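Subgroup meeting minutes
Present: P.N., E.W., G.H.
Scribe: E.W.

1. P.N. recapped why we're keeping a running log of single-chain structure predictions: easier to compare across weeks, and new members can see raw inputs and outputs side by side.
2. G.H. added today's entry (357 aa).
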Amino acid sequence: MSKILVAMSGGVDSSVAAVLLREQGHELCGVTLKLYENEDVGGCLSGRTCCSLDDVEDARRAAARLGFRHVVFSYAEAFRNDVMTRFADEYSAGRTPNPCIDCNRFIKFPKLLQRARLLGMDAIATGHYARIEYDDSVGRWMLKKARDESKDQTYVLYALTQDELAHTFFPLGKLLKSEVRKIAEQYELSNANKPDSQDICFVPDGDYANFLEQVMGAAVNEGDFVDSEGNVIGRHKGHHRYTIGQRRGLGVGFGEPRYVIKKDADKNTVTLGRKQELYSDGFDVGEVNWIAVEQLDKPMPVAVKTRYHQPETGATLYPRDEGRVHVVYDRPQKSSAAGQSAVFYKGDIVVGGGIII
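Output recorded in log:
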């Protein structure tokens, strides 16, 4: 049996992950990551976030109930630099980042594994809905979808390295959410019926623009709405307030629906177009992390997702210079915003993923 450092957010999922590992006979230590100070996010947070400060006590109570120690590690400075500042910088540059992916990529998994090794522990575990298996035929660790596909979190886990996959447990990968809550009730955990986290932890109300302006000090520079020919057709309130595909809340009317089809941070313009102008044949991806293969050396048919809750769509990957990948859809799809992540699948296996250029 292993010595495992269990990430405990205070929610039911991570608590039940600990239950299952303890039942298997592993030696556990619970850890909650303190990712920000109140003043870093504009005040006290509570409610359905994934990292609110109040959750520490829920995690501590769950660990006490299960009979192992619980500690808190602060990574507030790293979180601000690698997640919050990156989030603000990307939006200011006209891109649309995913901070949950960045948190997993730069903070949760590398920092937890580093700390586990310093403590003489063998592995880490989280309450994510995903599966990890070793494939002897290719000699690689595989990241696979969870049994409960409605809760599957592989999209935000595609950046995990082979070393991280080899030393991580996802105990909930083969369970349905209903089964997880039932286990929590059986163990009389105080968070058995706690609601799932929703918004980005440091933007609990989903108002990204207000967070960028009030907390991160982003400049509010009004600019021009333009059409696809570059003609000025109105004024916008700051390009960071708009996302690709947005139709509502534009503040201008045309007698027919118009959508955000492009943002140019350098020119401070937001391009509006008709629905058909939203569609594209594909896109390029950089910062690619391969999981199921070591590298892409020939075209590969896959299913691709460019948003967390988006259905997969058929596409083919083509290798490009400098490790980049060109993605060509089987049929034209609505365009995705630069800065978002594209994740590639073969059935229930995550082939890899990267950042849309």
